[in-house]
Amino acid sequence: xxxxxTVRMWRRSFVVLILLSVIGFSLLxxxxxxxxxxxxxxxxxxxxxxxxxxxxxxxxxxxxYDRNMKPLAQSATVWTVVxxxxxxxxPEKKELVCNGLHEILGIEKEKLMELASKRTCYVVAKKRIxxxxxxxxxxxxxxxxxxxxxxxxxxxxxxxxxxxxASSVLGFTGADSQGLxxxxxxxxxxxxxxxxxxxTAQNAIxxxxxxxxxxxxxxKNGKSLKLTIxxxxxxxxxxxxxxxxxxxxxxxxxVIIVLDVRTGEILAMAVEDGFDPxxxxxxxxxxxxxxxxxxxxxxxxxKNEALSKQWRNKAVSDVYYPGSVFKMVVAATALEINAxxxxxxxxxxxxxxxxxxxxxxxxxxxGGHGAQTFLEALCHSCNPAFIMTGQRIGVxxxxxxxxxxxxxxxxxxxxxxxxxxxxxxxxxxxxxTDLAVASIGQNFGITPIQMVTAASVIANGGKLVKxxxxxxxxxxxxxxxxxxxxxxxxxxxxxxxxxxxxxxLHENATTGSAKNAYVPGYRVAGKTGTSEKIGLSGPxxxxxxxxxxxxxxxxxxxxxxxxxxxxxxxxxxxxxxxxAPVFAKVMQEVLPYLGVKAEFTEEEKDRLExxxxxxxxxxxxxxxxxxxxxxxxxxxxxxxDSVIEQRPQAxxxxxxxxxxxxxxxxxxxxxxxxxxxxxxxxxxGASKTASLANLNIxxxxxxxxxxxxxxxxxxxxEGTEVEVGTVITVSFVHSDQVR
Length: 739
Description:
Blueprint: H1 2-38, H2 40-51, E1 52-57, E2 64-65, E3 71-83, H3 91-105, H4 109-116, E4 123-129, H5 131-144, E5 150-159, H6 167-170, H7 182-186, H8 188-192, E6 196-201, E7 214-217, E8 224-227, H9 231-248, E9 254-260, E10 266-272, H10 285-292, H11 296-311, H12 314-317, H13 327-336, E11 345-348, E12 351-352, E13 361-362, E14 370-373, H14 374-380, H15 383-393, H16 395-404, H17 432-438, H18 448-459, E15 463-465, E16 470-474, E17 480-483, E18 488-491, H19 495-511, E19 525-533, E20 543-552, E21 559-566, H20 575-578, H21 580-593, H22 602-606, E22 609-611, H23 620-628, E23 633-637, E24 645-647, E25 653-655, E26 659-663, E27 672-674, H24 683-692, E28 696-701, E29 709-714, E30 721-723, E31 727-734
Parallel strand pairs: 2-8, 23-26, 28-31
Antiparallel strand pairs: 1-6, 2-3, 3-4, 3-5, 6-7, 8-16, 9-10, 9-21, 11-14, 12-13, 15-18, 16-17, 19-20, 20-21, 22-25, 24-26, 27-30, 29-31
Helix pairs in contact: 3-4, 3-5, 9-21, 10-11, 13-15, 13-19, 14-19, 15-17
């Protein structure tokens, strides 16, 4: 009995043991499966994080060049200072390293000691130190024979060698070298490259294991960009834009865009007032002062708004009423659909009522232009005539060509933040009044880049071409990876219509409202614009946008240009007085630079400027003969036999009849005179006044026209003390200002 019981108990125990073994083994197998297949990747990651130190190697950001391969934005080498606490095993070594870095980097010693005490392979002490600081750290390591504990990792800092130059186009980068605005932002993926890594195995206490366990994953540097921007053309545009802002007391920034009419390449895009991309978060001194005077709770918001405004590219991100420059589009539309021709008669009484019960819309000439042809109406910039032209076109065709010229879509330019137009209704429906004001460029919004692109349609024979900023994408060896060619969207008008409108706009620049854009030796075509806007000056007060849009040379257009001043508060506000002279100044420099040959009329030849030869080192009689042979006046200072210095210097240009001063004694001090007032005069009056002061003038604008031109600005202010013979640029406009 007892024996049977024992056997049964043994058997039961054996069964239980088997069951427990099966259950235990099953649990073990399940656990292994879970660790291997379910939690495996996560555990691998955790193990890697504990066993591997991962140090980032920054990729070098691609360089941005102008079209002639001048670097506009590039990456300079800097270094990140890294502490390696695992190698600072003794208090003495930790003290030594922290004392040295405290003196070199200017970081508080307590903070360095805290970093050096961390249980980690490495910790960043300071980023982006320059070469001189790096050299001091290396000298310190060598002097103190420090083999581990401090590490220098190569990094890159974005650098803009020309400061504010083209800043609204280039943009800038942030603390981690990511593009935050402009080209830097739009082409971020192309420019940034791929960061590399140094992966180092480490033991349980965080110390690096032997070199065999270190792996380098090299960084892939970013690609470079060759822009369509020409550094010389951009500088000419920026220089003249700044002068225009100052002369006309412009309150709300200004824009110049220079565009190749056949390719869509942007040669210059100047937006003032700009910022320095090397210090993008620094405001202008007067703006910062204004913010500092605000209550503390308002300062942060005010600063953000001010920064956003100075970064904003007004050429692509802001809309405006185009005003009368839009009349070139209306004229092209009307001619294309045969609504009018150049000789179609109109009558202007000084105002027009678009329809019954609608308030009359006035002309800038209150007494009216009377009887006139369509060509004369364009040259007069006559509002009633263009309102009647708009009525002949009709709402449906008006909106159709508005879209064909590209105003109802973004241009697609490769810059961030491009704005859309603001038309009356998205479907193109307009009231009688809407059509009337639209025909004179009022009450709808477009961007400056849309307007100059539309002008290029007229200039290039009728094709809408996409504007672009990048010409080529380059690899690290500066070999071309990708060409950005011309993209023609569609034909808008016929070549015949294009030729007819160009001829009308050339006549306008010769005898009409655009004659202040006259450039000696070149046939210019264009249209002025003056549009009203909501006043910034106070309730009930009017503010204006003054603009000029045109192209040259008229017989074979190469470049189109828009000049745009937002809220001028000087003596004038009409586009013909504010924007047209600046257009002339820029074209006067840009066209010869681009190799466009000047062809002068006989009248222009009489007043043609002369390039001064280099006569230093010559005998006085030889120098005098050479100068006077160019129809210039000479003044000799000193009793020497030879010329040791001259004013103006060689290669400067002055009109015939100008004065050249020759200095013959080394002891002779160069005479100085005060600049007289040269504004408010005719060409002859300004020239004579300058001559009496032994100074020279250079003409800009319509000063060579037969009569009616008046000087409105001089680049060196009255009362400034200058050397005898100095050349002063004087701008002329016609006094019969129109919109």
